[in-house]
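Table S2 (text version). Query chain:
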Amino acid sequence: MKLRPVALAVMAGAVAAALGATSPAFAADPPAPDEIVDAFEAVLGPVRTHRPSHAKGTCAAGHFVATPDGTRLSVAPTFSGQRVTATIRFGVGVGNPNGADTTRTTRGLAIRFETPAGDIWDMANISAPIFGNPTPRVMVDGLLARRPDPATGQPNAERVAAFVAANPSTTYQGRWLAQNNPPASWATTPYWGVNAFRFKGQDGQVRHARWVFEPRAGTLRLTEEQMRTLPANFLADELRTRLGRGPVEFDMVLQFPGPGDDLVNPTVAWPDDRPRTTVGRLTVTEVAPGPGGACDPISFLQLDQGPGVEFSDDPTLHARTGSYAVSLSRRLQ
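Corresponding structure-token output:
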């Protein structure tokens, strides 16, 4: 089995605040890439052997084929309609690579698309419709509010409470996760991109859109009893068993905003009644036989495929490439 390397999963579980489309926090004071990684390490300690977020993962591989609507809506090579190689990392939203698969956190679907001509596009998706932070600055502030007190080894409760009181939307993703049990399989949950991107279509029009990968197997979550009794590492074994019966498939669906929808704050979900179009199908055909794999050393850097798919003004997107590179460089030291 040949597996290509893939991306770092999304920085899930970081704290946030609800800031609007004209957020002054990013415009006036964006944190440097080192500052972002330093904030994670202030909470987790030095991270040199694994990703700071979604540290636990399993490598897989497959392919992607765009629908005619996908080809119409984006001139990016990934949406040409040809079969595109997909290198995949399924993740668990924990900071410890030995964390349990039953935790009430996000699951990750990171993908590297590579066309026959060698064009590469990376993306990261999580199993919640909203991200944990609207701006990099608020993410950093929230992490620092939770750094352990040297005297107790625990975060200062008053400092955390003050941060949450000042930034109530830091509870939004956690509230969603509390109301939705973890997936029963990596194959039975939607994975949202949560950030808006600009898609340039064959007609020359540029459209904002977010995407979600909808599982063809349907959505299935763990019961409360399963959360208590399943092994800590059940997800990889379940996926291997499932793939022994046939491929795992997801439909990639674009969602388009309506008037007034926030284009730059990924903590705010767009209403479900917004227009949607299926633009491709991801087919997972292989999974690594054991822990780790070829996807492990790859950081998730190539996040757009302009002019077909480019960043929106969402500040979270613009902070990722540099901070991912810093995190990778520290792991390679």
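Notes on Table S2: The longest strand covers residues 276-287. The chain has nine helices and ten strands.
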